[in-house]
Every structure is written in structure tokens, then in C-alpha cells.
From TrEMBL, chain A:
<dbReference type="GO" id="GO:0016887">
    <property type="term" value="F:ATP hydrolysis activity"/>
</dbReference>
<dbReference type="GO" id="GO:0015833">
    <property type="term" value="P:peptide transport"/>
</dbReference>
<feature type="domain" description="ABC transporter">
    <location>
        <begin position="10"/>
        <end position="254"/>
    </location>
</feature>
<dbReference type="Pfam" id="PF08352">
    <property type="entry name" value="oligo_HPY"/>
</dbReference>
<dbReference type="Pfam" id="PF00005">
    <property type="entry name" value="ABC_tran"/>
</dbReference>
<dbReference type="GO" id="GO:0005886">
    <property type="term" value="C:plasma membrane"/>
</dbReference>
<dbReference type="InterPro" id="IPR017871">
    <property type="entry name" value="ABC_transporter-like_CS"/>
</dbReference>
<dbReference type="InterPro" id="IPR027417">
    <property type="entry name" value="P-loop_NTPase"/>
</dbReference>
<comment type="similarity">
    <text>Belongs to the ABC transporter superfamily.</text>
</comment>
UniProtKB/TrEMBL annotation, chain B:
<keyword id="KW-0813">Transport</keyword>
<dbReference type="GO" id="GO:0015833">
    <property type="term" value="P:peptide transport"/>
</dbReference>
<keyword id="KW-1003">Cell membrane</keyword>
<dbReference type="InterPro" id="IPR027417">
    <property type="entry name" value="P-loop_NTPase"/>
</dbReference>
<comment type="similarity">
    <text>Belongs to the ABC transporter superfamily.</text>
</comment>
<dbReference type="InterPro" id="IPR003439">
    <property type="entry name" value="ABC_transporter-like_ATP-bd"/>
</dbReference>
<dbReference type="InterPro" id="IPR050388">
    <property type="entry name" value="ABC_Ni/Peptide_Import"/>
</dbReference>
<dbReference type="GO" id="GO:0016887">
    <property type="term" value="F:ATP hydrolysis activity"/>
</dbReference>
<dbReference type="InterPro" id="IPR017871">
    <property type="entry name" value="ABC_transporter-like_CS"/>
</dbReference>
Length: 363, 338
């Protein structure tokens, strides 16, 4: 695998309180993360609130400055190049936000919003840029005429399409999405997920997706990194992670997903307690206070992320000896007639894929 | 949705309709269901389907104007909630029926200690002494498994984590032993491991108290974990209703099928997600007949009349004239002669 984007020992501290006397309170939001993202893959970063996944995403594109560490893209360390060079590289590296409305200037028309990155990067003349805007709008499932409207006239799903069109404008190679579909309704979410996958194939993009929804990740990702309190605790191919997690926290996350299938209700004991306060993380392994398998070693020594035979990375002292449970039996149990109905629906949708969409895509 | 458990419903909703301003279409239209003690009904649907408005209407919390109840009855143990005076409603709300919201901070008073809030509600409805109410508050915090409850009693809501706040709100809702609990997306804002804890807690408490529960959610996973009965809503209508088993193993309505198809599977990786095309029409601009018709791949001219909920199996109803869809396919094949 050729890495297109790689992090080495990346750290970000946030100072939350700076008293006049005494030491400031520091949150280690990202605490020594190293990862390699392969050319053309979909790489997912999952974890619960406060685990540092959004901070990591922003560090990877240097939307915020790292405290220390390196981010390598195409032979250059993004963390240490000057601002002008970084600005030039932004053409290649684009970001999609969770709430497109808050990232779109409400006073600009959709056309101006999508054209802005082209103008900044000196793509011209104006006529060429406008043609490109029309082409991008069509590509994301909107219409060229929508260029004259304002963001508030669009629904959530359409705004996310606008955000994607804007991110695509400069012809990027890497697209990082921070919860790109989690604010959307299920049926709209599916439309945007399909769009992202189509665009990835069409433009040979590398996609990095930050999410908390493990079903969406299951569908989209080739590889998944699981984060807990600023660290990657497991990094593995999606299939392997879901069927046989190697870190107890990954097992916990998978067991907590409510499965949309009758009879899937499991007799699991949910993990007790809240995630610890990142200001004062536990000693040793950060997951040990909530871990079913914790030993004395886990309380005292902090496990490093290490590579197991076969290539999976795990930060657990006991990864070799634990037998953890993955997601089994997550397939929906349906009657034969219902199975036929689902196939019928899928065929009907494939047949009339565009007709009803266009009619309703008017804001 | 007749089933043996419905013999003596605690709640009987019949034809509930809600109107927005002077709009000539109801935004919740002719919603009917019954609920027996100890039963959980999950109302599932996407934004704007009317699921939250249904819950608010039952709690007498519709913002009026512009919203108003335009028809129907909802009997809680014989009394009609929909025609009740606000003063009488205040007696019932927080007493015989209680509500849990998505964001606990909207229903917890940020300026009152947790213990005081729960005790206040107990005193209001049970008329007990201050000390007894405080004891009840402590007991409730214990029952929702908040660690160090004696300490939490004197803390303010902002001092609790999101999961603990949700527990405190559940404690408050259950403090007066309600017969009916309405939970509107109670776990949507929580992380997945905390969600699992809260759902587990709600199941345990419900089996202890025997309260009936209406749970509003957009998450079919939560439905599968919690529901006895399910009502699928779209555009203000219940389009399909039935036992949780029937809804998941034998769904009938094209919208239910589309919604389930849109969800990525956890079990295996699919090529491409099957979607529901387009978007929900604006309220007031719904199609005249079946409100799902604009997005339905099976629509025909016959869909221009409003479909009624009709039985389609034991304890299962669907509002689609084409159900079961496999028959439609067979008819098409005969008509085209292939």
C-alpha cells in the first residue's frame, strides 16, 4: 500500500484553563497518533464524543496547528511547510463538514460558493469557472439553475451536496469528511453515501471519513481506526474489525449498536460508566476502568499500538490471548415474500432511478 | 393493531389530527393506535413525518397557535386528553403521564438542584412532605443507577454528563409512577455505549413499573431493541403498523421497505445502497392521495385516492393499495404478457 497521507506521532493539546498561579489544565485531544492512509482507499476514524476524532481530521489537513508531530502528503510534511505552500496544497486536500449550512456563507449564492475555491486558486476566466460550477452542480445531483439560489433555500441533503460540490471544485485527491452524513435522515443519508462512493470511483479520490455511526462506516470503509481518549486503540480492515475485533473497546462499541432486525436484541451487558474525563485520563491503558478484561498490568503500563501477525494494529496488552466477540447475526431475518418485495423495490428503483428525484429536488 | 394484549388498553388514540395554521391539509392526519399496560409502541419515521407532533399533541404541549388539534380523541384510562382543559392537563402531566426528551437540558431547570426538581414534581402530584419527597428523589436516582446519588441530589444539571442527565430526567419522569411514558428520541444525542446503557435501563424500569411507553425514534435499530408494536409514519400518516416481529420480518409498505433498504447493513458490505428517491414534500404541499406517491416507484393512478390502513396479516396493517407488492409484480407480468 502506498500511503498518500500519513501521520507520525501527531499530538494536539488544548489548554482549557490557565490560572495565574500553578500549571495550566491541558487536554491531550490527540495524543501520539500515527497512521497511514493508502492511495484510493476509504479510511474511517470512529469513536465516541471527545475521543479526538474531529481534532485528528482537522490536524490531517492542518486546519488547526499540531502541538507536535508530522503529517506527510506527497513527500511534504504539512505540519512544517509555510502558509503559502499549504494554501497551494489545499487544492488537493479538501474538507466536508457535518453541518453544511454552518460552513456555507448564507449571503453568497450557491454558484458563488462553489466558484470561490476556483477563484482563490486562480482558475479562470470567469466564463470557464461558471461552466465548471454548472458541471459540478449536475455531478452532485443538483441543477445548473440552482447556482443563483441561496443555501437556506435547500434541504439538508441538498446542502450537503453543495458542500461536496464546493470541495470537489479544485479537483482534490484527498477528501476528508467530518460526520458528512450523520445529520441527515436515513433515506437522504443513503443518497449522499452513494454519491460520495460514485465520486470516489470517478475521480480516484482517497476518502477519510470521521463518524460515530458504525453501520455507515461498515458500508463505506476499507479500513477503520478506532479512537479512545486521543489514541488509536485498533486499526484494521473493516471486515476483520466487525467480525473479530481485537481490542476490548472495539468489542464494546460493536456490542452497543442496536441492530435493526427482529430477534437481534442481545443479552449483552452494556459497558458501565461514562468515558473518563480527558483532562485526567486513567493511568496505564486508558480503557482499563471500563474494560471487562483489565489486569494489574493494564492499570500500570500504557499499551503501545503494535502490529499483530497479519498486519492488524492493536493497543492492548492482551490482544493475543483474548477471544472477543464481533458482530454476528446482524443480517435481517425476513420472510420469503418480504425478500421478494425488497428485490422488487431495488429493481424498481434501479429502473426509475432519476425520474422522481429530479421532480422533488426543487427547493 | 388488534392483539390479545390490547384487551384493556391504557391509551386509545382514535383519529388524532393536527393542523398548522389555516392550512387545509392536516400535518398529522387520522392517527389511531392503542397501547396496553407494559407495552412499548415505537413510532418511527424521518424528519417532518409528524411523529414528534403526535407525541406533543398527546401531552397537550402543542404550540398553539399556530398548531391546533383538528380532530380525534385520545383516551387515557377513559379520559379524553385532547379535549382536556389546560389546568386538568397539568394534573395529569408529570403524574399519570410523563415525557422524556432528546435533550435533557430542555426539561431540566438549570438553576435548580437535581434533588429539588424531582422532589418538586413529587410534592406537586402526590402532596407529600418535603422530607418524603426528597427521599423519593433519592430513591429514584438510585433506581436509575446514578453513582453516588446522595451527592448528585445536591448538584445542578450542568454538573452531570449527558448520560447522567438523561438518567436524572428518567428519574424525574418516573417519580410519580406514571401509567404512560412518552419518550421523544431519548437516546439520539448520546454516544452508542451510553445509548445501550439508557435503553437497557428503560427496559428494566418499564418491566418493574408496568408503564406503557410510546417511543419516538428515527432509528430502526432502537425500534428492534425496544418495541412490542411499531407505527411507521410518513407525511403525517401512519403508513404501516404492526407487531415488531411483523414489521421487521414482513414489511409491506413501499416506504418501510425503502427506509430499511436505505440503512447500511452491519452484517455484510453491499455494493450500493438502495435509496428512497427525492425528499419529503413540504407540509401543505403533500399529494392529495397517498402522501408517499411522489417518491414511490410503484405509484399508479389509483394512488390518487387516500389509502386507508387495512389488515395484511395477524396484528399488521398497511396503508397501500398495492400491498402485497409481489402481487403487483405478478399482475404487471400478466398485463405485459411476458
Amino acid at each position: 500500500m502506498t500511503a498518500i497521507l500519513a501521520a507520525r506521532d501527531l499530538r494536539k493539546d488544548f489548554v482549557t484553563a490557565r490560572p495565574i498561579f500553578g500549571t495550566p489544565t491541558v487536554v491531550r485531544a490527540v495524543d501520539g497518533v500515527s497512521l497511514d492512509i493508502g492511495q484510493g482507499e476509504t479510511f474511517a476514524i470512529v469513536g465516541e464524543s471527545g475521543c479526538g476524532k474531529s481534532t485528528l481530521a482537522r490536524l490531517l489537513l492542518r486546519l488547526i496547528e499540531p502541538t507536535s508531530g508530522e503529517v506527510w502528503y506527497d513527500g511534504e510534511d504539512l505540519a512544517h511547510i509555510d502558509k503559502n505552500r499549504m494554501r497551494a496544497l489545499r487544492r488537493d486536500l479538501q474538507f466536508i463538514f457535518q453541518d453544511p449550512f454552518s460552513s456555507l456563507n448564507p449571503q453568497m449564492t450557491v454558484g458563488a460558493l462553489i466558484e470561490e475555491p476556483l477563484r482563490v486558486h486562480g482558475t479562470g476566466p470567469a466564463r470557464v469557472r461558471r461552466e465548471r460550477v454548472a458541471e459540478l452542480l449536475t455531478r452532485v445531483g443538483l441543477r445548473p439553475a440552482h447556482a443563483d439560489r441561496y443555501p437556506h433555500e435547500f434541504s439538508g441533503g441538498q446542502r450537503q451536496r453543495i458542500g461536496i460540490a464546493r470541495a470537489l471544485a479544485t479537483g482534490p485527491t484527498v477528501l476528508i469528511g467530518d460526520e458528512p452524513v450523520s445529520a441527515l435522515d436515513v433515506s437522504i443519508q443513503a443518497q449522499v453515501v452513494n454519491l460520495l462512493e460514485d465520486l470516489k470511483d470517478e475521480f480516484g479520490l482517497t476518502l477519510v471519513v470521521i463518524a460515530h455511526d458504525l453501520a455507515v462506516i461498515r458500508h463505506m470503509a476499507d479500513r477503520v481506526a478506532v479512537m479512545y481518549l486521543g489514541e488509536i486503540v485498533e486499526c484494521a480492515p473493516a471486515d476483520a474489525l466487525y467480525s473479530s475485533p481485537r481490542h476490548p473497546y472495539s468489542e464494546t462499541l460493536l456490542a452497543a449498536i442496536p441492530v435493526a432486525s427482529h430477534g437481534a436484541r442481545r443479552a449483552h451487558t452494556p459497558v458501565e460508566g461514562d468515558p473518563p474525563n480527558p483532562i485526567s485520563p486513567p493511568s496505564g491503558c486508558r480503557f482499563h476502568p471500563r474494560c471487562l478484561y483489565a489486569t494489574e498490568l493494564c492499570r500500570s503500563a500504557r499499551p503501545e499500538l503494535r502490529t499483530l501477525p497479519g498486519g492488524r494494529q492493536v493497543a492492548c496488552h492482551h490482544a493475543e490471548t483474548l477471544t472477543l466477540e464481533g458482530l454476528t447475526n446482524a443480517e435481517a431475518a425476513r420472510s420469503p415474500a418480504a425478500t421478494e418485495r425488497f428485490a422488487l423495490y431495488a429493481r424498481a428503483m434501479a429502473g426509475s432511478a432519476t425520474a422522481p428525484t429530479d421532480k422533488n429536488n426543487d427547493p | 393493531m388488534p392483539s390479545p394484549a390490547d384487551a384493556l388498553p391504557i391509551l386509545d388514540v382514535d383519529g388524532l389530527s393536527v393542523r398548522l395554521g389555516k392550512m387545509d391539509q392536516n400535518i398529522v392526519d387520522n392517527v389511531s393506535f392503542t397501547l396496553a399496560p407494559g407495552q412499548t409502541l415505537c413510532v418511527v419515521g424521518e424528519s417532518g413525518c409528524g411523529k414528534s407532533l403526535t407525541a406533543l399533541a398527546l401531552m397537550g404541549l402543542l404550540q398553539s397557535p399556530p398548531l391546533s388539534i383538528s380532530g380525534g380523541t385520545a383516551r387515557l384510562g377513559g379520559e379524553d386528553l385532547l379535549s382536556m382543559q389546560p389546568a386538568d392537563f397539568r394534573e395529569i402531566r408529570g403524574g399519570r403521564m410523563a415525557m422524556i426528551f432528546q435533550e435533557p437540558m430542555t426539561s431540566l431547570n438549570p438553576g435548580l438542584r437535581i434533588g429539588e426538581q424531582i422532589a418538586e414534581s413529587v410534592r406537586r402530584h402526590k402532596g407529600v412532605s418535603r422530607a418524603a419527597a426528597r427521599n423519593r428523589a433519592l430513591e429514584m436516582l438510585r433506581r436509575v443507577r446514578i453513582p453516588a446519588p446522595e451527592k448528585r441530589l445536591d448538584e445542578y444539571p450542568h454538573q452531570l454528563s449527558g448520560g447522567m442527565r438523561q438518567r436524572a430526567m428518567i428519574a424525574m419522569a418516573l417519580a410519580n409512577d406514571p401509567e404512560l411514558l412518552i419518550a421523544d428520541e431519548p437516546t439520539t444525542a448520546l454516544d452508542v455505549t451510553i445509548q445501550a446503557q439508557i435503553l437497557d435501563l428503560m427496559r428494566v424500569l418499564q418491566s418493574e413499573t408496568g408503564a406503557a411507553m410510546i417511543m419516538i425514534t428515527h432509528d430502526l435499530g432502537v425500534v428492534a431493541e425496544m418495541a412490542d408494536k411499531v407505527a411507521v409514519m410518513y407525511g403525517g400518516h401512519i403508513v404501516e403498523a404492526g407487531s415488531v416481529e411483523r414489521i421487521f420480518t414482513d414489511p409491506q409498505h413501499p416506504y418501510t421497505i425503502g427506509l430499511m433498504s436505505s440503512m447500511p447493513s452491519l452484517g455484510r458490505r453491499q455494493d450500493r445502497l438502495v435509496t428512497v428517491p427525492g425528499v419529503v414534500p413540504q407540509p401543505g404541499a403533500m399529494p392529495k392521495g397517498c402522501r408517499f406517491a411522489t417518491r414511490c416507484p410503484f405509484r399508479t393512478e389509483a394512488c390518487e385516492t387516500v389509502p386507508v390502513l387495512r389488515p395484511c396479516g395477524e396484528g399488521h396493517e398497511v396503508a397501500c393499495i398495492h400491498a402485497p407488492l409481489e402481487n403487483l409484480a405478478a399482475r404487471d407480468l400478466r398485463e405485459t404478457g411476458t
